[in-house]
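Proteins fold reproducibly. Consider a sample protein:
=====
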Amino acid sequence: MMDSIIKSDKALDLLTTISLAQFLVIVALFIGVGVLIYKFRDRIKNTFEDYRQKENSKEDLMDMINNHEIEIAAIKKHHEDDMQIHYANQLKYREQSLEKQAKIDVQFEDINKKIDDLTTLIRDHYEETKRLKRNELRDKLLNSYRYFTSLEHNPDQVWNEMEAEAFWHLFADYEAMDGNGFMHQTVKPAMAKLTVIQISDL
């Protein structure tokens, strides 16, 4: 109670020390500040509104950045997952391709072996056929040789042009079958000595 009384006395002392002119100046100052505030209230309001909007814009921008960062992180994670799946598939396809290539290589080896075997079989068959044909031709040539060079069967040692032509055709076939040896050393020279007569002279 005493403290309140003391404070009231101090306020009265302060008021008594202020002159009327000073009091009016203070009142005018408060009125002027009030008028300025009222006059520029829209500008002050707009300033605070702009400040509030800027703050809201900053918050929106930060929210947008955060959202974008989340979206970017999700896209990056999705991309990494896709790349892992892609690499896994590539590895799987490569393994499958290697397996298929290995099977194809085995099949090619088998085919090549069969081709080689078939080629060998054909070559052997050809060589055997050629050997049989060569022997057949040699027998025919030897029979002609024995007949036409025999003094008993062909004392004049002659043959007609058709017989000679047929013999030398057979001899050419014999040579084409790799015939050699006795036929070239003995038969060919002896048959070349025979006299060819025209059929019209017979």
